[in-house]
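For the sake of clarity, the format in which proteins appear in this thesis is described at this point. The record quoted next illustrates the convention:

___
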Amino acid sequence: MTDPRWAVAMDRDETLAFIGVVFDREGLSDAGARDITLGPIAALSDGALVRCVWGNYVAIRRLPGRPGLSVVRDPGGGLAVVVAEAGDSALAAPCLPRWLRDAAGIAPPIDTDALAAALANPLLLTHRSMLHGIHVLPAGHAVDLVGAKPGRSRALWPPGEILHREAEDPQGPETLRAAVTGCVRALASRHKRLTVELSGGLDSAIVLGALASEGRTADLSCVNFAVAHAGGDERSEARAVADRWQARLVEVTAAAETLRFQDVLCGEQPVEPVLYGLDVTLERASIGVARAFDASAIFTGQGGDAVFFNLPTAPVAVDYARAVGWRALWSRVAYHEAQRSYRSLWHVQGRILRDRFGGTRRTRYAMPGSQLGRTAVAAGEHDLRHPWLHGDEGMPPARRMQFEAIANCQHFYGPTWRSSAAALVHPLLAQPVVEACLAIPAWRLTHGSGNRALARELFGDWLPEVVRNRRNKGEATNYYRRAIVENLPWLRDFLLGGVLVAHGLLDGPGIDAALRDTSLIWTDQSRMIAVYASFEAWARYWGLSS
């Protein structure tokens, strides 16, 4: 069976081609989605195209009236696109392995300014390259390829109604359930067998429910990863979800002492540092289960926290106050948000009042400055947000936080071993799901004192009681902190003797302090260490010398 990621569909006149998985937007229902007919859409503009189709695709079309091509990346971001300047031509590809670079004569040097900025905000990698002559096409954007240098990318998504929505959609909850169910089933329809990473939490349980309620349990296998640290063992919840559908479940117990970061960092490095795929234990286990059951895809619940709004924060009440006025001060929304965010009601009311009289300032995303060198700290002062977020100033603050979280989820499409072995599918980040969630006010998604309350109600018939009524979330922080300890000698030598410290991009004393016992036990200063090790491996591979 042909890998759906690389399936090609072309219209009769060869003016429009799709690579990947693509569906008709109007045909989306809870039963799935219908395939597109290329003829009627071949003449549409790039912007109209992304409104009438959805999927994990790249569209390539001839430029009308002149030589060259237009490349469109779908707003879901399921397929990566990098454009490389290669002599007198431009090369567009999902990745640039060494054999392809050698064949095309591409040897891009490191852009140290971009490297400094990415260290300050690693999520910059979802829309900007750290190599000269290499360009990342952001999701929901298009770029024209005419000659050796690609044009400036054009934003096709998000539409204005997302950035400037004035009123809620009364059919929002029904639309959301249909979008989730239809997207999961449509994306799965391209695969004969698939694996579901079943965490035991809400999001992956919803994905499994959408698949299994259609009767696909014989075609799928589930894998659960449990860690022997506080909050990391969710096997009982995963078993309950699997039992609900009589689905096959494989349990993998991960031990921090077996996680070796150098296994993934000492070989060939992709065009961006590995961020999402640093846990080689998880990578190998997921690949192993998929291969054991001949699965061509691995489905996850990634993105659910963002789209269903698992963000306990006072601005939810601020959004409500903007909609209903002063009565929000004494509302159940304000009370419940105080409970969810572990704040006093006075704090929430204070946020409402400050917003009413002076607005709410954006919170700047920043990495721990004590571990960054001066150049990286200075780079972090600039606006490094995803291009989707340009123009979002008019959004209510909680909605803006949600949209930023959704944009940051693009890093789940970064390079991993899993995505090399099978299609790695995050259906909750599909364009119709994201748009359906953003049409529902934050206080509707979060009503009550629990988390993701609307999602629990909408999909409650798929959930066992232990998941439906669960209030906490699995936590693997202690596992990864222990993994840092287990890899401490290697990490210390690798980072302190590395090129990033030598170039002043990372701060040696700050890294050394983060790797001391007191920091590892009592603080979260080590949370970025594995990420910085990935940047170090990448910088050495791509030619940054000490």
